[in-house]
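Weekly sync notes, structure subgroup
Attendees: PM, AL, DS (notes)

Item 1: joint prediction request from the bench team. They want all two components modeled as one assembly rather than separately. Inputs as received:
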Amino acid sequence: MKRQHEAGASYIMDIYLPIAEVSVDVFILLGLGGAVGFLTGVFGVGGGFLLTPLLIFIGVPPTVAVASSANQLVGASVSGVVGHWRRGNVDFKMGSVLLVGGLAGSVFGIWIFTLLKRLGQIELTISLCYVILLGTLGALMMVESIYAQLRVHRPGVRRRKLHQHNWMHGLPLKARFRRSRLYISALLPIGLGFVVGVFSAILGIGGGFIMVPAMIYMLGMPTAIVPGTSLLQIIFVAANVTLLQAYTNRTVDAVLALVLLVGGVIGARIGSRFGTRLRGDQLRLLLALLVLAVAAKLAFDLTVRPSDPYSIAWEKT
Amino acid sequence: MSRGSAKTYTGLDPMTARPCRLGDRTSGWYFGLVALILFWAAPARAEALVADLTNHLIAITTGFTGASVVLFGAIDGPGDVAVVVKGPEREMTVRRKSRIAGIWVNSQEVIFANVPSFYFVAASRPLEDIVSPATAAFYRLGVANLELKPEGLTPSHAVDEFVTALVRTQQRARLFPSSVSKVNFIGERLFRTMIEFPSNVPTGTYLVQVFLVRDKDVVGGQTTPLVVSKVGIDADVFGFAGRQPALYGAIAVLTAIVAGWLASLPFRSA
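Output from the run, pasted for the record:
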C-alpha cells in the first residue's frame, strides 16, 4: 500500500505497478530484468532465485514479487526452450512425468502460500526459504568454483558411468524414457517435480537450480537433454502458479512481469555473447558471491530489530 | 460540482446571483468564497449549518502525490464546528513480532473489525472545550473515540498495546491524524478547513460529517460523500484483476508466452 519514489513522481520514466501499488523507475526494472537475463545467457540458470529477492529489495511486496516472477518465468522459459527443442534436446515423456508432479506440487504450494498469508507468516517464510536456498547454493557454487580454479593446471579426465542405478530407481511404476535412455520408476520424476513445484509456488522460482542437478545426479539423465526438459516443464508449472496466484491471491502484476521480460531478453542476448568469451570459473565465483550477498542481506533483515514490532494488514477489496 | 450551491442560487439579490455561470474550472477558492457569500446573504431560509467541499472526487492517477480538499460552510449564529472524515471501514489485523531463535517472527495477532481506513478530525476550538466526553464518544470525535475493539477479546492491557500500535501505524502512514486540525472561522458564521489526503489514500466512498456544536452538544449536522477512486489504465488493470481473476491470470500467462516466443526469434536466426 505504500508508494515508493514519492519525490520521483515527476519523472516520466516512473512506472506505476497496478497490483504491487508501488511506483518504480522503469530503468531499475529493465536493469533488474536485464541482469537476471544476463545470468541466464552466461550460465544457463533461470535467475528467478535472484529476481524475487531483488524485487523485494526495491520495495515490491514479497507476495507480489513471488507471483509476478512466476509470470515472468513463463515467458523466459518459452524463449529458452525453443533453442533446445530445435536441437532435439527435449525429452517430452520425462517432461510430462515431471509436470504431473510439478502441477500437483504447485497446487499444494499455493495452498500453503494462501494459508501462510492468512496466518501472517508468508513474508517470513519467503525470506527464510531464500536464505536457506541461496545460502546453500552460493556455498556449493563457491566451493565448486574454487576447486575448479585449483584443477585448471592439473587436467585429469574424470570418467563416470552413463548413470548409476540406486535403490530409488527400483521403486514401483517403472517406465522407459527412450530419449533419456533410462528405465526407472516414474515415481522418482513425479516426486522431484512435486518438490520443485512447491518451491515454485512459494518462491516464484523455476527451480532449475534444484531440478537440473537432481535430473543429472538423481535420475541419471544425459546432461545435454536436461536443460531443455527442465525448461519445458517449468513453462507449465510457472503458468499454473501464475493462474493460481492470480485467482486465489490476486498478486500477479502483469505489467511488472512484462517489463522484466523485456529487460531479460536484452540481458540474455548480451549474456550469451559474453558467456562464450569469458572464463566460466571466475564468473561462477562472482555469481556465487552475488548469491551469498543476497542471502546475507535477507538474513540480516530477519535478525535486525524492527523499528516497530507491530504491523497491520488488511484484505484488499 | 456541488449541491449546496445550486440551492443557494434561488432567491438572491441580482448582484450576487450574477456570477452563476462559474465553470468547474474556476478555482475552488473563488467558488468557495462566492458560495459563502451566497449562504451568508440568505439567512432567512438557511438551515442551522450548510457546508460543501471544493471537490467531491479525488482521482488517483499514475503521478498522484496526495490531494487536499477545502471544506467550507456557514452556520446561522454563534457556535462551534467539528468535522470528521472517515474512509471505508475495513477489517484490520495487527500483528506483533517477537524474537524467536534470533529472528523476528509475527507471533501474536489481534483482529479489529470496522476500522476506518482513513480518519480526519478538525474543530474550531479544542474538542474537550466544545463537547462533553459523552458527545465526543457518540459522534466519534477524535482518534481516542474511534471504538477500536478487537474481535472476541476482552479489553486488557495487552490488547491496548495493539490498539495503540494500530493508531500509531495509521498515523505514520498519515491515514490517521496526529492532532485535531483547525476549523477556521471568518467572522462569526463562515468557516473553512483543509483536509489533506496522502498519496497512499485508500480508495472508496468517504463520509464527511460536519457538526454544529452549541453548549457542549451537537445541535446540527450535515453529511457529504467524497469519492476516492483510481482512474486511468492502472485502475483498469487493477479492477480487471479483481473482477475477473481467472481471465486476468490467463491473459498474463498468454502475454508472457507470446513475449517469450517473440524473444526467441532473434536467437533462431543468429
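Discussion: The helical segments of chain B are 3-8, 14-17, 28-41, 127-130, 133-138, 157-172, 233-243, 245-269.
Action: AL to compare against the crosslinking data before next sync.
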